[in-house]
Every structure is written in structure tokens, then in C-alpha cells.
Amino acid sequence: MFAKIIKQIAIVSATCALAFTTLGGSVNAAENAKTPTWGAWKTTTITYKTDVSSNYYKGVWKNAVKSWNKVGVVELVPAKSGAKADITLTSSNSLKTKGDDLAGYTNYSYYQKGGDDNQIVSATSTLNKKLLTKYNYTKTQRTNVATHEIGHALGLSHSKSEASVMYASERYASIDQQDKVALQQAYNN
């Protein structure tokens, strides 16, 4: 039986104000990198609610949810009216951590079981509307940031590969094969 300790932690998605700035390192080495995982939900059917008033951002989150559902490992379904959702998808005009502006951020709670086998029990993913507008992110790029944040909510960590949607400062990549494999491993499919 795992500990009944729920830890609040925040994944700081380094999808920051300068998201178009690449991190140092060799592209060839990064191409061989794998997307790491840190935990998973108890079931592969995970509920979500979109808590934004803007139809534009509802569409961004909807497209990101569709992207993960296409992978075929988990099924993200809207929470029933009045029911608590596993994942809340939202937006804000400001996201800062340690003084840095972030394009996206995911906060979650989990039962600590050890290693990368933690059980996620809730998550909230947020997009920074002001920053995404300031740096002229297209709707596709905003969807990629939203997809990245949902990836954290599903238990994925940052990848070293610029081809991965889970790359720390990526707005150009969508889900690739390493992300699919990582999700399959996290959910033992």
C-alpha cells in the first residue's frame, strides 16, 4: 500500500518567455533522447474540464486533448456537469515562477509510490495568454504548448529532444514517437 501522503508539486514547464531560444547541446544526441515519465493516473480514462471563458482557448485545449486521445493510450473525457474533473485546463494573464514568465505551467498532486511509479490524483494546466500573445504564438503553437502541459498532467517529464512535444522550450513540435512510447510505458500498454 502506498503512502497516504499527497505531495503538491509544480512542474515548471520551461516553455518560458523565450521559448524560441534553444537550450545548448547536440541535436544528434537529443534526437536519441527518450521522454521520461514520473507517474500515471490509476486508470487510462481521465476526466478533464476546460475552465476558460474564451472560445479561442477552449479550442486550443480541445485540440490538445484530441492530440493525446489520438495516441490511443489514455482517453481524456469531459467531466460530467457538477463532477470533479481529474485535470483542469485553464488560462491566465500571468504565470511566473522564480521571476520567470512561463508560457505554460502544470501543478498536480500525487501519491508517492517511489521512482517513476507515482499515482497522479489531480492536475491543473494553465496557459499564459499574455505571454503567448506578446511573442506572437500561432494557434498551432499555442496548441503545442497546451499539449506539452497536458503531457505533464499525464505523467511525462521534459525530453532532451527538440522533436518531442515534451522538450522544455518547445512551441513548434507536436507529439512524436518517443512521447507515445513514454505514455505507453507509463500506463503499461
From TrEMBL:
> Which InterPro entries does the protein's record reference?
MetalloPept_cat_dom_sf, Pept_M10_metallopeptidase, Pept_M10A, Peptidase_Metallo
User: How is this protein annotated for GO cellular component?
Assistant: extracellular matrix
| Signal peptide (UniProt feature, chain positions) | 1-29
Q: Which Gene3D superfamilies did the record assign?
A: Collagenase (Catalytic Domain)
Gene Ontology MF term list: metalloendopeptidase activity; zinc ion binding
- Report the domain of life of the source organism: Bacteria
GO:BP terms for this protein?
proteolysis
Entry keyword set:
Hydrolase, Metal-binding, Metalloprotease, Protease, Signal, Zinc
Which Pfam families does UniProt cross-reference here?
Peptidase_M10 (PF00413)
Start and end of every Peptidase metallopeptidase domain?
34-189
Q: What SMART domains does the entry give?
A: ZnMc
Designated name of the protein: Zn-dependent protease
Q: Which organism is it from?
A: Levilactobacillus acidifarinae DSM 19394 = JCM 15949
Source organism lineage? Bacteria, Bacillati, Bacillota, Bacilli, Lactobacillales
